[in-house]
Amino acid sequence: MSVGSVGEIVWVLGIVAWYVIRYPFERRAKRVRVVSDVRSRSEIIGLVSALFGLAILPGFYVATGIPGSADYAASAWAVALGTVIFALALWVFRRSHKELGRNWSITLEIREQHRLVSSGPYAFVRHPMYTSFLLMGLGQAFLLANWVAGLAGLIGFAVLFFLRVSKEERMMLENFGPQYRTYMERTKRIIPYIY
Asked: Which of 6, 15, 127, 137 is most enclosed, with most CB atoms within 10 A?
């Protein structure tokens, strides 16, 4: 088995694990009443971009090898690094869901009895779910030895992040007021101690 194939298998297993982590939270979230949502066209564009870049395009590449013209030689060190980064992404993803519990939603929503979560990964960054997507995109870039499929995750993440994060923070400020502003002052957005 080639190094490139190992990277592709690790990527597929990572995507399966991502879905296995998310599914029970998605089911539970449907049972909690939404009291406010700020969904918009730009949010849908961001979510579709992330799905396309982190799952659909690389999945198509892994299944078909297209676009093969963008392939480059895979290396064992890149696959090993990509595996570690993707595993870290899944750990942050799981921890973020666990901490949010009933507050979690895929779109920008405030749920009944919503509370401000500032424990676990939320003690370091305000948006660890985005941190996990950034890490997934980085992991994908190392796992898939293809300039298009490998980098698509980072591009999809960037579109989602820049279209959505400001709206999400505005929503949280409107809902939690000074409590959220204080939280913003002591945490970074997605990279602990940096940004």
From this structure: 137
Q: What pLDDT, in 10s, does the model give residues 97-131?
A: 999 887 777 777 776 678 899 999 999 999 999 99
Domain assignment of residue 78, given as a range:
3-186
Query: Does a structural domain hold residue 191?
Result: no
Handedness of CA 88, 92, 97, 98 (dihedral sign): positive
Which tens digit of pLDDT belongs to each residue from 38-77?
778 888 999 999 999 999 999 999 999 999 999 999 999 9
Is residue 66 assigned to a domain? yes
CATH number at residue 115: 1.20.120.1630
When divided into structural domains, the chain yields a total of 1
